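Journal club prep, notes for RB
We'll compare a predicted complex against what the paper describes. Inputs for the glutamic acid case:
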Amino acid sequence: MDGNAVNEPSFRESVDLMFNRAVQLMELPPGLEDKIRVCNSTYTVRFGVKLRGEIKTFTGYRSVHSEHMEPVKGGIRYALGVNQDEVEALAALMTYKCALVETPFGGSKGGLCIDPREYDEDELERITRRFAYELAKRDLIDPAQNVPAPDMGTGEREMAWIADQYARMNTTDINARACVTGKPPHAGGIQGRVEATGRGVQYALQEFFRHPDDVAEAGLSGSLEGKRVIVQGLGNVGYHAAKFLAEEDGAKVIAVIERDGALVDEAGLDVDAVSSWIRTHGGVKGYSTHYVEEGAPVLEHDCDILIPAALEGVINLGNADRIKAPLIIEAANGPVTAGADEILRGKGTVIIPDMYANAGGVTVSYFEWVKNLSHIRFGRMQRRQEEARHQLIVDELERISSDSSIQWTLSPDFKQKYLRGAGELELVRSGLDDTMRGAYQAMREVWRARDDVTDLRTAAYIVAIDRVAASYRAKGL
Ligand code: GLU
């Protein structure tokens, strides 16, 4: 992958530059502007774990960007490149993301400098529990104050260990399970959390394509059907986004870029087959004759929609002017640097920004947190009652039809669909879809109504900052 070009600001500076671009179009008191921009605190912890007969020291971070609402929320990332600058940038993005999709949280993020592939499961559990212990003891994991979630390099398994570690340290906390989200369903998680971020990317694109004027801004037309998509990173987010777009919306995934190269096939790739190949072989190499060794230049191929779904900074000053995609949706956090953003804006590329595009994860995390606090699964009380009421209508319709002179029948498909009350997964998807539609509309209203706002990212920042500012004002600041 292309590294950031020389003279490129750091990730945190990049986020600040984008923030500044938006606030200069707002009328906030300068003091409040600074208060919102700065990161409140970053805790660095170094701890030792005895592994393979020797003590290994790890460095981890938990950064709290804004506590205008509590708990603060954001994932924990396991990667070798984790550093304070990155964690602070990601925490800031969490603040704006949560405000944009109206989840009642402040912004936070954590990270551990580790390559998880170097350790076996047992070792990872000991490392994770020790990290969780260090954070929980300082209230940096707490259902009311700071609620982590998965991010790059972590998933359900790590979240279950964290939840259990917190419960062991807080044996009488009845809400202990709400201390972390993204847990497996059998350990207090919620249906649909694993797919949530990718599903959110799909819902975001569906909403974008409901607005022909917006689609035209990107020089595109029509629906998602047949659109040629390039996905960079077929991890949890990229995989689910690509799969749903291909299977449900008729989009064509013409390239997948991974660490060890890319697959390019104009006829469309089978996302599930590619994903299972990556899982068993550790990369895309050898999958088929469509393999190319140099992955980075594939970002510059001709396509309709480019989905960077891996690392930050992959579209930067070094390649921005060669990016051909007219529409980019940022499934990853910060994949486009501030400098690249400017170049792309100049070219008329439409960018659906990260703080909106990948907000599906935290949205479903919110549902999980609410579920944990209410100690009941969504739909448990009303599902059968809803089915009984639907049955009443169907029975009545069938009675009328048998009595009337005009003979008609309900199709079995209609009956089956209508009679089924919504389970947790359907409710989660419905809540997520509603959230993604609402947030897009809030963003586009600013984008469309104001002459001085020419891109969706600035619009997203304006909506988010406005809400955070209102929250601070309500606190008397
Ligand atoms: N790590 C995810 C993100 O960047 C999810 C955060 C959460 O669910 O709290 O949005």
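Talking point for the session: The chain has 16 helices and 13 strands.
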